[in-house]
Every structure is written in C-alpha cells, then in structure tokens.
Amino acid sequence: MTDPTWRIEQEGFDPSREREMETLFTLGNGYLGVRGSLESPLAISQADLFIAGIYDRKSPVLPYSELEFLTPDSDEHPFGELASFPFPFQLLLKLDGNPLTLFDRENYDHSSILDMKKGLSFDRSVYRFSHGGEPVVLTTMRCCSAIDRHLLMHDIEINAGNRQGLLEISTSMHDPHLALNHPHLNQLPSPEVPAEVLLFETKSSGLKACLAAKVTQDGEELNTANWTTRLVPGKSVRVRRYISAFTTLDTPHDSKLTPHEMASAHLSSQSWSDFDGKLLEHEREWARRYERADIKFEGSPSLTQAQRFNIYHLLIAADHDPRTSIAARTLSGRAYGGHIFWDAEIFLLPFFLHTFPEIARTLLMYRYHTLPGARKRAHRLGYRGACYAWESTVTGEDVTPKTIVLRSMHEEIPIFTGTQQVHITADIAFALWRYWEATGDDEFMRGYGCEIFVETARFWVTRCQLEADRLFHIVKVVGPDEYHHNVTDNAFTNWMARHNLRKAIETVQWMRDRFPRDWRELTHRLNFEDHELAEWKDLEERLFLPQPNQDGLIEQFRGFFSLRDVQIEKKSRFKAPVKRLLNWDEVNQTKVIKQADTLMLFFLFPDLFPEEIIRANFEYYEAVCDHGSSLSPPVHAMVAARLGLTEIADQYYRQSLELDLMNLMQNTALGIHAACMGGAWQALMFGYLGVRFQQNPDPDLRIDPAGLPKGVRSISFNLRYRERVYSKEDVA
Q1: How far is residue 352's CA from residue 317's CA, in Å, rounded to a whole number?
Q2: I want to staple 41 with a disulfide (CB 3.0 to 4.6 A). Which of 47, 179, 319, 652 is the partner?
Q3: Are 108 and 140 contained in the same domain?
Q4: Is 620 found in the same domain as 513?
Q5: Under DSSP, is residue 561 helix (H, G, I), strand (E, B) or coil?
Q6: What confidence category does residue 516 fall into, taking pLDDT thresholds of 50, 70 and 90?
Q7: Positive or negative, the Cα torsion across 454, 458, 463, 464?
Q8: Is the distance from CB of 312 to CB of 732 less than 8 angstroms?
Q9: Rounded Cα–Cα distance for residues 705 and 719 (Å)
C-alpha cells in the first residue's frame, strides 16, 4: 500500500480552485516547469510551461498573475518578465464527433495524484453518457524527467469498455489563443515532421525556443498530432509521447545549432523501447535525491506529508545552470514575473547547502555572472562597487517596478524597494561566507567569491555617510519590512553591512596570503588600491549598529519607537490589506510591520545577543507584525522554537509548512511560495533541532534540540556539512 505521506491527492473538480491546484501539482526539473493543469485546459486555466532563463520585455497584455496588482509596462527591461509557453500535455478527445469534456459535471469524475516520491503526476477522468452505456475512462501519467532536463514524457490510456465508434485524438500543443495566453511569443513557421514542432521567438529579447513531440499509439509511431482510431470492444487505446524543449540558451558556445536542430536530434534519440526504462531511471534519481533530503516525523503523518511537499517543490525548482537562479515563485507561476530576490540566498540556499551543496554553488555562481549588472546598478545609484538588484533576471540589472496599480481602485502606488532595499547586497555576501564555511570550497572563493566581496565592500564605503557623531550611518533604506521606506539605520541592514565588510576584509587577507599571484591579478583587473582595505576597516569599526535599549529592545530603525501604535487584528494577518497599500504614507507613520525585520538578526545570527534580548524583541515585534509576506512565519517559528515558546513556534511552523497546501495567503494560484518552504526547513533545523556551526578549532556541526513540534516523537533527516553527513543519531 502506498504511503499517503508521499502523495497529494485531489478528488473531484472545483473550477474555483483550478489555478490553485495547477500550482500544487506542478512538475519540474529546474530547467522546465509545467503547471498541473487539466489535459483539456479550461478558459479559467493558467496552463503554462516555463523554461528557465527565457525572459522578455513585460507584456502589455494583462497576465493571469496580475488580476489586481498591475505593474506597468517598461521599455527599460528587454528581459523583464519570465515568458510562458503552451501547455505540453494537452489532450483533446472526441467520440463519434462528441467532445469528451468536464463541462457536464454530473456525468464526469476526476481525480489527480502528485506522487512526490516518484516525481510523477497521475490523472483519472471518467466520462459518462446521458444515454447510458459504459463510461470512457481516461488515465494519464506525466513526467518531467529528472535525468534529462530537456525531456517530458506523457503516457495515456483510454478505456471505453465494450464501446465501439471512432475516437478522435489530438495531442497538439498548438494554442489558438497564443497572443492572449502567451503574449511574449511570436510563433514561427514550423516544419511538418516529426509529429509536431513548434518554433517560437520572444518579441523583445529575441530568444528562440522549440517544442518538439513525437507520439505512438499501441506501439506504432505516428507522423501527426491529430488522428482518428476505431475503438475495439474490450481493448484500451495506449498513447505515449516524448516532448523535447530547447532554447537559444542551450546552444553550445562553439556551435551554431538552432533550438529546432537540437530538439529534433534530441527527440530522434528517444527510443520507444526505452520509455519504461527512462521512467525507472527517473524514479531512481528521485530516490537518490530523497536519500539526501527527505525528512520524516515519527508521530505526525500530516507534518511529514507537508514537509515532503515542500522538499519536492524545492528540488524541482533547482537547475544546474549558473546563468539562472530560483525565482520567488519558482517555475510554477507568473507572480513577480519570474524575478529573483534575496529569497534565493537567505531562505533557499541553506536547504541546498546542507543537502546538495553543488546546487548552492550554482545559485551563487548566478550572482557572479550577474556581477556586471550589480556594478551597473551601483553606478546608476551614484556609488562604487556592486549593488545587487532587489529584483533581477538573467542580466542582473534591476527590474523592480517603480509603481504598481491597484486595478479595482485605479490607484497607482510608488515602489521604493528598487532603490532602497539595498540589504540584498549584504545578504548575498552573507550567503557566500556561509557557503565557504560549510564546504571549504577555496576554489570558489579564490575564483569568484573574493571578487564579489571586494565589489560589495566598495559599495558600502560609498553608500554609508559620516554624521556629526563621527559614526557612519545608512540613510534612505527599506529593510525587510516593506511598509516603511526612507528610513535611517535599519538595524538589519546595518548589521548585515558590517558583516559584509568584516568578511570582505578576512577574505582579502586570506587571498593575499594564500594566493598572492591571483590576488595581484585581481587587484589589477579591479584597479584595487591598498588604501581601500583601510577604508573598509574604518567603516567596519565606526558603522552605527543599533543596540538594545534599557528594555532590551533593538529599534528597527531610527525613530521607530516614536511611531503611532496600531492594534493588529489576527484575521488581517497573512495578507497585505489593500487599505494599507493605498495609505502607504500613513502606514509609514505607524508601527505595523509587514514581516520579520529586526527578528531577521536572530534568524541569521542566533548567538549575536543573549536570550533575554531575543525574547524581549520577539514579544515586541511579533505583536506588531501582520505577516503580509510569506517570508515572515518561518522566521517567527525559528526564533520562537529557540526560545522554547513551543505553542507559538508550532503555530508558525505549521503555517509555514502548509502555506500553499492550505492556501493561507489566498494566492497560491500565482505560484509556489518557495522562500517560505526554505524558511520552514531552516525553522526545523536551526530552530527545533538547534543545529549550530563552529569553525574553531575545526569546522564542525552540533545538534542540540530545543524541542520537537507537538506530537512528534523523533525526526529522521540527513544534513551535510563539509565532508560529513549528520543524522538523528548525531542529536545531542
């Protein structure tokens, strides 16, 4: 019997939840992401295929993801929005000319299963007929290959019992409403063979893509995606498909191969006799992944299922291409245009760092490849060095919208994060250092990381300003709490900047001592001068760092304690009320915060302050937080777990684990909340299990649990640090 903690099941069909289910049932491999739409998509569906790295200028056609919050079109960014492609698993059936559809819900049953253990999805549809007779039962399997990033597989069985008649089958991926559903694409003329080839070009960025498919019915390969077959009583119809996807980005540097040529060659290499074998290899790869990443809660099947769901979605979001990273909603939805935030380094990277460190390295290599864009952003803002974009895509240039429009109220609201949420630069430096500590990857730091540290330190030297108290301050910023802008000395930003500077100094000294030749080459290339290191040290020593007051509280930013008190109703949490967005200037004058801000210090630096200071700040800031961001619950869960506030920790932890499964933010339809999933993993590891790292005298990891979630007797897990794998046997 199948373990239900490995499955997500949907019984029946509810049009009001269709887009939500499409997100939950997404398949992917980091390169491809396919939403879990019905094989016969409805008008309400958001049936999309996403390909990592394929961005285009923001479309003037309103995408599904922005029904209320509209970000205006911009000529500035040719790579401003993730493009979507037609759904590859489409299937249309007609029996004796009559479409088999789900519109007659009284005569239609449907169920879906996401098998997270195998990385497969299964659908079963039963079509009944008002005039009687045996129903037609359609069962399908979908696979986004874990062993071949360009390959999708589709297995279809149609059982009509003893019925006779003509069955029309269409597996065409063609979308007659391409301009509306996939507005970034121009469709190019396609050849007729193999069974189906679709060629596209993005309208502004000029990237080409090819989707090619071949199909077999009952073992016989067909040269079309639309055909008719005669039903034989008592015999089912078996259809199998291979689908191949390639883009301009897949062309080798020393080659002129087109996406069409690559897809055709790839498709030709797929043998029908290997279909089952490829599925078996795919399942074995998923088993290998779970050997590293699976978590099981003895005593709580519901937590196990939710955690496995989160791990599944984190794993299908990660690619091995250093030109891309993980977007806020992964390749599961259109929200935020596929933009990459601080989520990748602060909330997602730790999961990969301690399960698949090679993926963590790839995520950081994306930041190295986009360093030119970060330099350009710093220059545009009037500073030296590199300032990473708050929202970025393939070039690293900032694609944060300057405004959003609330369509229902025709109100335009300014966005300050693009110019003021500069803590992301220090966040990336923080992730670099954590990666180096956990892996000892000197090659990475020598070849890439040191350069990032130099450029980010240069940025802070010019971004901080000296005031009359002879201390340096950071003004006009937005911290993690996006309800407050133009603030001075945001505690999280200042402490992170200090960490960035301190580790930059250590890295440069290490590089200079260990690899003097490489250091000389780097200083020559970056025009680095010796006096710069002295400037970093001076700034690191004299940067203002908010400290606890007499009540033990760290002020979120200068003047926060003088703001107006606001009582937050619990029912208003986990959403950003429209009235707060409309009255953004008024909200700026209150203490209500969108998400964990000062608490982020304790999330990242658990030993920075004594426990009584952490407790005082948790109690104070938890009361004024409305959790308008999905990043907030896991931070609260981790800090509460460390403090032994078991009931509060359990509440936030379960909310973090089930945020998408329960649709707590009411916007799961727009894509998976990946950062919350990564944060929930950290809440478990670094909160409940008390995982800590030490570097002296030797790099090591210790596990000292603060307690376990309610009802959990023990936890099975694996955690990697340096060359060692830790498990529950290593718990103190």
Answers
A1: 11
A2: 47
A3: yes
A4: yes
A5: helix
A6: very high
A7: positive
A8: no
A9: 14
For 624, phi then psi, to 5°, come to -110, 10
Boundary-marking domain end, from 291, 322, 348? 291
Which of 257-266, 541-550, 565-574, 645-654 is least confident? 565-574
Residue type, 313: H
Of residues 357 and 98, the one with the higher pLDDT is 357
241, 256, 291 — which closes off a domain? Answer: 291
Q: Is the pLDDT of residue 587 over 90?
A: no
- Is residue 567 a contact partner of residue 599, using CB atoms and an 8 Å limit? no
Query: The tokens 């039962």 sit on which residue?
Result: 137
Token pair recorded at residue 664? 């707590």
Q: CA–CA separation, 176 vs 727, rounded Å? A: 52
Q: Residue 409: pLDDT above 80?
A: no
The whole-angstrom separation of Cα 66 and Cα 403 is: 13
The neighbour count for residue 191, using CB atoms within 10 Å, is: 10
The whole-number average pLDDT for the span 640-669 is 96
* pLDDT value at residue 434: 98
Domain check: are 309 and 287 in the same one? no
Per-residue pLDDT averaged across 298-305, rounded?
Answer: 97
Percent of the chain scoring above 70 in pLDDT: 94
**Contact call for residues 135 and 129 (beta carbons, < 8 A):** yes
How far apart are alpha carbons 583 and 588 in whole angstroms? 9
pLDDT tens profile 342-370: 999 999 999 999 999 999 999 999 999 99
Contact 468, 485 (CB under 8 A): no
Q: What's the average model confidence in pLDDT over 495-506?
A: 99
| 531-540: long-range pairs with CB below 8 Å, 24+ | 532/457, 532/458, 532/461, 533/505, 533/508, 535/461, 536/457, 536/461, 536/501, 536/504, 536/505, 537/505, 539/460, 539/461, 539/464, 539/472, 539/501, 540/498, 540/501, 540/502, 540/505
What token pair was written down for 602? 């304790």
Residue 453 to residues 93, 113, 511: CA-CA distances in angstroms? 58, 46, 11
DSSP string, 446-502: IIIIHHHHHHHHHHHHHHSEE-TTS-EE--SB--S-TT--SBS--HHHHHHHHHHHH
Is the pTM for the entire model greater than 0.85? yes
* DSSP letter, residue 258: -
590 by DSSP, 3-state: which?
A: strand
Residue 5 CA to residue 684 CA, distance in Å, equals 18
User: Cα separation of 682 and 694, whole Å?
Assistant: 17
The residue among 583 and 566 whose pLDDT is bigger is 566
Token look-up 């922005």 returns 66
Do 483 and 624 share a domain, yes or no?
Answer: yes
Please list the residues that pair with 701 across neighbouring strands: 693
What count of Cα atoms within 13 Å lies in the side-chain half-sphere of residue 665? 23
Q: What is the DSSP string of 98-150?
A: EE--SSSGGGEEEEEEEETTTTEEEEEEEE--TT-SPPEEEEEEEEE-SS-TT
- We report the CATH number of the domain holding residue 283 as 2.70.98.40
At residue 638, φ and ψ (nearest 5 deg) are: -65, -50
Question: Which pair of tokens denotes residue 45?
Answer: 């569906």
